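Comment thread on ticket #2218

A.B. wrote:
> Attaching the input chain for the structure job we discussed in standup.
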Amino acid sequence: MTATIKSKSGRYYVMIDYTQNQKRVQRWIKTEYKVGEHCARKLEQRRLSLLREYQDKIQLVDIDILFSDYLIWWLEEIKRSLALSTYHSYFQAIHHCIAPYFSERKIKLSELKGKDLQEFYNFKQDIDKVSANTIKHYHSYIHRALAYAVKTERLNRNPADNVQLPKIEKHLANYYNVVELNKLLDYAKGKPIEIIVRLAAWFGLRRGEIIGLRWSCIDFDRGVLTVAGVVKDKGNPNKSRELYYEPTAKTAASLRSFPMPQSAVDYLKSIKQAQDERRARYKGYNHAWDDFVCVRDNGDIIPLEYVSRAFPKLCEQAGLRRLRLHELRHTNISLLLEQGASMRELQEWAGHSTYKLTADTYSHVQVKSKLKLADMLDEIIISK
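C.D. wrote:
> Ran it. Output below, let me know if you need it in another format.
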């Protein structure tokens, strides 16, 4: 719920904005203050007073509020505390998956039980074939919303505390060997997705980091490339107008720099020169993404969803195993590990927040690389 000072017809109003029964409600309350009067402090006191009054009114009917309606209300309540991309993730899950399920069953917030949540998770996994990891995210959103209900005395306890979640199987990342990677790079030459493939192969960047790479973050003189932000989408990822740049990354560790091999320097210089020439030549060129590396011939940013769809097809067309783009990141890091890079070095290279994350993700590669040590021992220690 929000309370905002507005002006209309020479008079100040307080607009109360909230969600109830899945509908947005606005109430305009006229104040005694006229536009132009020196009344800022009194007007703010009136706004706060009305906000508390309406919060109390809404809480009086909380006993009858549906759990689905509460989830939608709660998301708008905490919206200002969330990063934009996080809000969109919450919005998609709550509005399109969680709320519709509970709305159909007319379960009230006050009557919600752990078994209701358990049935929801089982339904999503058994009927909708949702992954265990996705259910984990659903549970995180629901648990946080219900914790807020407990904090604000709408519930005495959190029904999500003792729910049994499905076990998440450890994912062993698939990756190419050196021969396969070079075959892919050779096949990608001249294709629209070539620059995406090369940046992932050279530096092991994530999809959003690649699309978010800016020319101002590449120092050709020093041969250094810096990840300083990412491009994300607002829920309609195949449309360029839905994409936005966020000058932050997944974690603080994700903001990192790379020394560039000479092949990368030469390639990126040629890409920049071609972009500069097109920008000067085409009247209809889109200048909104001028500083970005990964743009189409008309200046449009390359859509995230296009990358996700096009890369697996490229692999198949090249006669290789079908991989996701993120597995090209795994290829980069795995090959470096096999060549002798340490886990500590790779933690910084990959932009992982902890050493444990790197070690857990690439433990299978580490075992493979240690086989070389075992072979060396086999030559040193002669068994009789």
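A.B. wrote:
> Thanks. Noting for the ticket: The longest strand covers residues 23-34.
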